[in-house]
Amino acid sequence: MGHDNSRGLISVIREDVAVNGNLLVAATQMLILYRFGYWIRDHRRARLTRMLGNRLYAALYPYVRNVLGFDIPSTVLLGRRVKFAHQHGVIFHPLAQIGDECLIRHNVTIGVRWEQGKPGLPPPPPRIGARVHVGVNAVILGGVRIGDDAVLGAGTIVTKDVPSGASVVPAASRILRLRAMDDSDREQSAAQRRDSAATFAEADGA
């Protein structure tokens, strides 16, 4: 992943900036801390360097999680040139794997799936290939594999493998019943509109 040395770390961060935007962009700030946290965990680093680096990472992570809205620990295997289109509500399991050049939107959850009656080892996390597009509010659960170039639509819940190049979309919303309005309904609706108009007029007058 290009994190072997400080020069490689800077190169990867430059790619993140090129894809996500300048240092004022929330995703770029998150990625810089993630890359640093991943880099500092390498046991080839000097013991003192790792200790101080881990403390710095731990001190800054709450800002990334609670303010920027990204819960992506440094233990995640995150590929290069991954773009995060928006911030907030992005949660990755600590052992999730995401390939290169993926596109992730907001409110995306990538986690494990605990199944009742199957005790033992923890369930495996998802593995996502390269160039995968993940839509808003998508949820990916369990040890599934998402193939390269797959597209997961907004609101998709994935619990099974998705082959390369496939598109997955949830069922479209549909109207179950259309109730006809009678005279009393129309009068009530008109009264609500009059009340709303009067409230706004009073506010403007104040």
UniProtKB/TrEMBL annotation:
Keyword check for ATP-binding: no
Classification via PROSITE patterns: HEXAPEP_TRANSFERASES
Molecular function terms, GO-annotated: serine O-acetyltransferase activity
The protein's Enzyme Commission number: 2.3.1.30
Top EC class of this enzyme: transferase
Keywords: Acyltransferase, Repeat, Transferase
Provenance organism: Paramicrobacterium humi
Residues annotated as transmembrane: none
Region listing for Disordered, in residue ranges: 180-206
Family: Belongs to the transferase hexapeptide repeat family.
CDD domains: LbH_SAT
Gene Ontology cellular component annotations, sorted alphabetically: cytoplasm
Protein's name according to its UniProt entry: Serine acetyltransferase
Highest taxon of source: Bacteria
GO biological process: cysteine biosynthetic process from serine
Basic and acidic residues bias spans: 180-196
SUPFAM superfamilies for this protein: Trimeric LpxA-like enzymes
Reaction equation(s) it catalyzes: L-serine + acetyl-CoA = O-acetyl-L-serine + CoA
